[in-house]
Every structure is written in C-alpha cells, then in structure tokens.
Amino acid sequence: MNKLFKTLYTLLFILLFSGSLFAQSATKLEGEFKLGPAIILIVLLITFILVGVFNRAKDTKTYWAAGRKISPIGAGMAIASNWMSAASFLGMAAIMYGSGYHGLSYVVGWTGGYVLLLILMAGQIRRYGKYTAADFIGDRYYSQGLRGVGAGLAIFISFSYCVGQFAGIGLMFKWILGIDYTWAVLIGASVVLAYTLISGMLGVTKNMQIQYVIIIISFVIPLFILSYKFGYFAWLPQIGYGEVISDIISGIAPGKGVTSMGHDFAILPSPEFAMPWDPATGQTAFQWLAICFSLMIGTAGLPHVIQRFYVVPRAKDARWSVVWGLFFICILYWSAPIYSAFGKILSSNPEVGKLAQDAIVVYTTQLGDLYPLVVGFLAAGAVSAAFSTVSGLLVAGASAFSHDLYYNIINPKATEKTQMLMARLGTILMAAGVAIIALMNLGLIAQLVAVAFSLAGCTIFPLFLLGIWWSGSNRAGAWAGVIAGSSVALVALIYFIGGKFGASLPYQEFINYYLNAWYFAWLGAPLAIISNIVASKISKNKTPLEIKKFLAEKVHNYDMT
Amino acid sequence: MTNHDRYEVNFFKPLSKHAKGNTKLISILAIVWAVAVFGFHILLILVTTPTAEQTLNDFNSVWPQVVEDSSATTEMQQVFSRSLLMVLGKNIVVSENHKSVLKESLSWSVYNMQPDSVKAQYLLKPNGEIIQDAATYIGLSSNGFDKIMKDLLPTSIVKVNNTSLSSSTKEQLPEIMELYLIHNQSFLTDFKFLGFPFHYWYTAQFLLILFVVLCLIYAVAMDRMNKKHDFIEET
Known about the structure:
The complex is a heterodimer of chains A (561) and B (235). Chain A has helices at residues 2-18, 35-54, 60-65, 72-83, 86-99, 104-128, 133-140, 144-177, 181-199, 204-229, 237-250, 285-299, 303-306, 315-346, 360-367, 372-410, 416-440, 445-458, 460-469, 475-500, 508-514, 521-538, 545-555. Chain A has one domain: Sodium/glucose cotransporter, CATH 1.20.1730.10. Chain A has 23 helices and no strands. By secondary structure, chain A is mostly helical. Mean pLDDT of chain A is 82; it is low at 15-28 and 61-67. Chain B has helices spanning 3-6, 17-47, 54-68, 74-88, 96-113, 116-123, 128-138, 144-156, 167-181, 187-190, 198-228; strands at 49-52, 182-185, 192-193, 196-197. In chain B, the strands form two sheets. Chain B has a two-stranded antiparallel sheet with strand order 1-2. A two-stranded antiparallel ribbon of chain B has the order 3-4. In chain B, a hairpin with a 2-residue loop joins strand 3 (192-193) and strand 4 (196-197). Chains A and B meet through helix 6, helix 11, helix 12, helix 14 and helix 23 of A and helix 1, helix 2, helix 4, helix 8 and helix 9 of B.
C-alpha cells in the first residue's frame, strides 16, 4: 500500500515540476482543454478514493470513533479542510477584488465565529453526546416537532451551502476542461457525488488531513512566486503584500515587470481598493458590520461544523482541535487578500477584458505568467477545497434526512440497512437538487454561501446558545425563537428571490438594504433570542426536571453535593 | 430550595466555583472579541472623513471653464482630459454606464484640442493614428503614470457625436468623478504599519491573530481551571 502511494506521489511530483510537455500558453485564460491540470486533478481524485479505501472503517462504531485516535493537530486539519470551501478558496478573493475592504468582512466573519463556537459551545456540545444538530434540539426541547424543524433546517442550510460549492466546482471544471458552465456543473456534480458515495463511509478524517495539505500548499505556492517576480518581499508574502496594498493606493508606475499579456505591471492610484466602505464599491459601513456579525454567529450555528464536535473523544480535545483548526484556517485567510491585490493590478488594463470575478484567484496566476502547472495545481486545490466541504455537507444533510427525519420521526423501527439506504438516497437527492440550483447561477459563490450562514445564525445558533446556557428556555420559547428567526429569514428570502425574478414588492429598497439575504441575521438572531426568552418566561410549561438535571450534571458537570 | 432551583443552569448565575470561573473567563474573552472587532470598526466609522484625491481638485478647478463657458485654455483641457483618464484607469470598479459617460467626455475634450483639419475624423470613427496624436495633445509622455494613461487611450477614445457635451453628461460627470475620487480616510488609514495602511493590517491580519490567541488562552485557561477544581469533564 505504501509503495502505491509513493508511486502516486512521485507521479504527481514529476507532473508538477517537469511537465513542460503539458505546458501551454497561459495567455488564453479559458476556453480550451488543459491537459496538465486535468491530469493533476484526476491523480488527486484517485488518491482521495484510494486513501479512503485503504483507511476504511470496519464498522460504524470505528467510523464514528475514527477521530478518537488522532491528535488535536490532526483533528484541527480535518476541521480546517471541512471548513475551507470554494467560498474560502475562490470567493473571498473575488469579493475583495471587486469591493476592496468590504471583502475583509468575510475574512473576519468566517474566522471570528470560531471564537464564539469555542468559548460558548464546543465542549458542551461534546458532553451533550448526540449525533446531529436536530438530535440536540429535539432532546433539549423535548419535542418531536422541533426535531423535525431542526432536521429540515439542517437540510436546507447544508443545501444552500452546497450550492455555492457546486458553483465553485463548476467554475474550475469549466476552466480545466474548457467546456461551458452548464456541462461543467453537471460533470463536477457527478464526480463529487460518486466520490462521496464511494468514500463517504470510508476514511474521511484521513482524507481531510491530506486535503488540507493540498489545499494550503496549492494556495500558497503561487504567492511566493508572484511576490518574488514583481519585486516584493517574497520570504513571507503574507507580510510582504502590505507594500502591494500601499502601492495600489498610490499607484505603480510601469517598469516593475509585465503581465502574460504584455501589459505593464502598473496601476493608476486606486485608493478604493483599500479604503473602508468606499463609495465606489457601493458598500456601506452598516453592511460591513452586518455581514461580519451574521457570518460569525452563522459559523457557530452550521450543522456540519457543529457535527464535528460530536465525534472527538474528549471535551479537552474538542477545544484544542478548534485552536489548531482555526490556526490552519487562518493560514489561508491571511493569504487570500494577496490574490485580490495582485489581481487588481494585473487586470487593470482594460484590454485584459472582463474577467469572471469568481475565478480571479486562477486568472491572477495566469496573468502573472506563472508556470502553467502551478496554475493547474491551484485549480485542483480549489476542487479539493470544494470536495472536502461538499462531502461533509452531503453527509450532514443525508444524516439529518435518514437519522432525524426518517428513523426518529417517520419510522423508528427501521433497520440499520434501511437507514443506510435512506442515507444514500438522501445524498443523491440532495446532490441532484443542488446541481439544479447551481445551474441557475444566482450570485457570487461567497454570497450564495452567506445565505446559509444567515439562516443558521437566525435559527440554530439561538437554540444552541440558550439551550446550553439557560435551562429556563423551554419548548414554547424554542418555538417562538424558531418562528421569529425563520420569519425574518423568509421575508429576506422572498424579497431576494422576488428581486431576482423582477417582481415589485412593497418597501423593496428598504428591505433589500436592511434585510439583504446575505446579512439578515443581524436582526433575525437577536429577535429569535429575545422571543425565546420572553416566551419561555410566559409559558407555564416549564423545562422538565430530568432535562435540567441532565444539563447541570452532564453538560456543565456541576457538582451537586 | 426546590429540586428545580438546584439544577437551574444560568450563565449569569453560576452554581459552582468552577462555573463561576468559567463565566468570568468567557465574559472577558467575549468582551475583548467584541471590542476588537466591532469597537474598532465603529471607531473607524467615527474618525474617517470623505477625502478627495488630488485628481478631483484638478477636475473641479477646470470644470467651469472647460464645460460651462468654453473659455478653457489648452492647458485646462489637458488637465480635464487627464482627470478623466485617471478615473477610467480604475477600470474594474467603474460601472459600464459611467465608463461611457467618461469616454464621451474625454473624446469630446480631445476633439476640442485637435486642429480643425482632424476634427472631422472624430465625428466619423477615430483611427489608430488619430489616437496616437491625441496623446500628444493631452501632453502624455511615455514614462510613469503618463504611459498607463496613454495605453488607456485606444479603448477610451470613441466617436464624437456632437460638437458640444450632451446635457445629461454635463449633469452626470461631476457626480461620477466624486463617486470614484472621494475616499473615507483618517489617521488610521494614513498611518503605515509593515507597509500596510494601518486599518487594513489590523483587519486582515491582526484580528485573525487575535482570534487564534483568544482560542489559545481559553483552551489553556480551561485546562488549568479543570485541574485546580479537580473537575472531571468526562463521566
């Protein structure tokens, strides 16, 4: 088995560093089949599947416990690659490229949420000892109805989060295979579905560690080359790009080098790239704060993120794996703005043409005239990022479907075999649905994902927060909170979708600004929390003693003697 | 004390010593977290003021002569054209509508500077040679920013339809220039740190470092606290 891996990696290595055979002109940004990148991608996919097969869990018990033997560092890597998606890899740089400082609200929002998750929830969730988010909600609020709602929300959130990933996969397949977006999404979706079904129950954690290494290396290598090539501090581009930002503000005179298309590496003064909420970007300070807040609480409420804490062995490991996980995530987030900065300069000449903003990470390396296989490896890294997240999401969505909805509510007598069948069915249904929505091409990748975040922040986050920290929160309160949170979400979504299809609705401008689909949680979450508290206080039906006892003794470990 | 009260879990009313410590720790970290992220940005909102780029001042100083009473000297026309090119150079952030207004104004201004013999060609379709000459009339050299502006000309000079600017362009142009040339600035954005504008470094790098450190502090402090209170997490 080791021999096989060695051969595979040697092959990958050879491809990367001696592949002048496959090198082709980088000036054609898209529209052709790229052999080198295609081979890298296929080798990576085969590696993932083989790793899965060789690290197969022998039964469901070891599958769940797979994380229990690994160190917090390894678990941190798994958290990071489960987390880092097409939105992190491609979307963030795309938003910063188009809207400058505004994009940093995504960087801060997607990392700051982990602080909340750790200090408020991680250890307690682990000690609660359930398998899914809906399990927690159903048990804590002693209601089958809420369990169903929780499962529905988990499916819906995983679903919309997944749409963004599929869009990213489609974009990269389009670039690598030179086909149109529709076919790229369809092919990408089939590949990721096959991959999840084959390796879904196999060595997921091991794969996530390998995927993390690939994601981060492929993302960072081009930055060293770009910084070196255009004369910036290249030993640590994450620090060196400060000069790039300042240069964009004051302008760069020609003479620092040329792009792959023969234009100067030069730009006229463009302070709009770095100044806060610049009028030119059309984004305001309120939007910056609202997005940042929504993404933070959304992070702490995402089912597929929360679910990772159920499988760590001890609460202590849960905490330390978050510390490592956040550090590993930050390595990518520290680097992402560099792509947008170089992209801004390299595409400043109008003759470069209008670039698809979502693929700016890849175009930047092409315009910087980097070795084509480095670019190919980068694109393959983007696909890995999307794959690792999609398989996590499909599993989360499918388990909500088979475990929470089917087994716990519809048919409690279902055998293990029927449950597995339902899980597979759920995976396929979800993948197909997501592919259809992704084909409609509703918005930028990162923003599609933001819908999922706001919704999680409005509904699941308040339920967990109050459920863990206040035993007074009861079934009536939970219902009130869920209804308040989802009504805000519903209004926002109706206006968002209505706007897309050109319907005119009352107060459209006002609602679109304050309850935009991307950041409605700034209002929805506090409203849900307040409704929950008020209804809990009013309701005569108090939380049953055994739940209070469980919460105090097991979850918070209060010494009652 | 009823049984219900004994098992009451409330973040703000911790029942054990360990829980008290936990509440204190979480509160401190959450406050640091909130002040660092939202406090800083509220400060940024308060201290920044809209600041114009030099280009806007140049533009405004020649606007009345160039557009309103057509008494502009060639030099003024040149300043006018350059300021439009500076905005067109922002390329990706400028919307297509705005670009066409800018291009129309630029072509009109260059048209006015050309000798009468060439003017007719602008009314048809400007060719490469004409565009080369335009650089001379605007007074663009081949070095520095001038070269970038010169490279912009081929995509920026369009056919001139009227010998005077349309009224809608006259109305829109000053607004467009303001939109792209006014930025929110303050001492926080002017101060440089590690080469970055300070606010950019703070948000893009420092906040992320702070998040990791906060998590680290929490993990270490929890381990210590559990040891101190002989708190066994797993049962």
